[in-house]
Amino acid sequence: MPTTAPAFADTTASDSALRRFLHGLPGVDAVGLEARAASLGTRSIKTTAKAYAIDLAISMIDLTTLEGADTPGKVRALAAKAVHPDPTDRTSPRTAAVCVYPDMAATAAATLAGSGVKVASVATAFPAGRSALDVKLADVRDAVAAGADEIDMVIDRGAFLSGRYLKVYEEILAVKAECGTARLKVIFETGELSTYDNIRRASWLGMLAGADFIKTSTGKVGVNATPANTLLMLEAVRDFRAQTGVQIGVKPAGGIRTSKDAVKFLVLVNETAGEDWLDNHWFRFGASSLLNDLLMQRQKLSTGRYSGPDYVTVD
Question: Where does residue 160 fall: left (phi above 0), alpha (psi -120 to 50 degrees), or beta otherwise?
């Protein structure tokens, strides 16, 4: 089973040691954090840079459908869109991945075979995470066996909020072991963690347990990705790499719907973590509606005309 970074081995040796470490992290200055996120959000970029940012954002999208009404046909259509987002312009970049429930992973994998677009699958009783560990691990095994390249797991927020950090840590370790070669994204559901201090603690807990990505949210609650909580997580991965040499990705998810929003998040990445994270191996957008707005803005830059939503496919 994977273990934490050697520099932090003592930190995860016991529940009390882990609690001491997490509660010993610097407290978050909420006012300062939100002010910096707002300030970075006002940065303007010129046309050439905007075109680059739009294509970069498209390439970072996990095109997602996580609905009870999902069908194989819908997943195949979404996968086809991921490979060729704009059927009228084959120069448009592909999205990073298609994200589906485990029972749809095989359909997505068959449709995307050879395309370079990854199959991501939510698991561990997404979105609530309220099931026994053996059920969660079976969920992961099923998704990986069906062809998932990436697993998006949810932490046990009840355990985290009641201070049972070692339970959360060990659960992430167990899920990571079941992933095999699949990359693991650990979802905190930041809207349920209540405080920025908790988001910082969850970020470090996930990274210590071997997450390949830390992810804000499921997109199923009222408050999802925000510039402030994403900035906080970007600071965490930056500091973690400085201390361990290990780079971890970040995925804001839910509520990012426009090109303007996406560009703001890319500025956060560049100004906080740095250029090394400006790649879809290290930064993703969890989004379903963002892609169409990016495509419309891309068409406007190319033609000088705003095409409107009738000129992109409806997911």
Answer: alpha
Q: pLDDT (tens digit, 9 = 90+) per residue, 201-236?
A: 999 999 999 999 999 999 999 889 999 999 999 999
> Residue 315 burial by CB count (10 A; 0-12/13-18/19+): exposed, middle or buried?
middle
Residues that are catalytic: 152, 215, 251
- Give the Cα-Cα-Cα angle 33, 34, 35 (nearest 5 degrees): 95
Per the omega criterion (within 30 degrees of 0), is the bond before 252 cis?
no
**Contact between 298 and 64 (Cβ < 8 Å):** no
**Torsion of the alpha carbons at 297, 298, 303 and 308, rounded to the nearest 10:** -40
Backbone angles phi, psi at 100, to 5 degrees: -140, 170
DSSP of 11-31, one letter per residue? GGSSHHHHHHHHHTSPPP-HH
Report pTM: 0.93
Q: How many CB atoms lie within 10 A of CB 87?
A: 11
Closest C-alpha among 189, 181, 103, 118 to residue 153: 189
Query: Which amino acid does the sequence have at 65?
Result: T
Q: Which amino acid, 60?
A: M
- Distance CA(153)–CA(230), nearest Å, equals 18
Neighbour count for residue 252 (Cβ, 10 Å): 29
Other beta carbons within 10 angstroms of residue 10's beta carbon come to 12
**Nearest Cα residue to 230 out of 24, 31, 34, 61:** 34
Q: Which amino acid is at 166?
A: L
Closest C-alpha to 69, from 104, 97, 96, 99:
104
Distance in angstroms (rounded) separating the CA atoms of residues 227 and 1:
34
Specify whether the CB–CB gap between 184 and 213 falls below 8 A: yes
- The 10s digit of each residue's pLDDT in 141-184 is 999 999 999 999 999 999 999 999 999 999 999 999 999 999 99
Residue pair 150/121 in contact by the 8 Å Cβ criterion: yes
Q: Minimal CA–CA distance to 65: which of 287, 294, 305, 301? A: 287
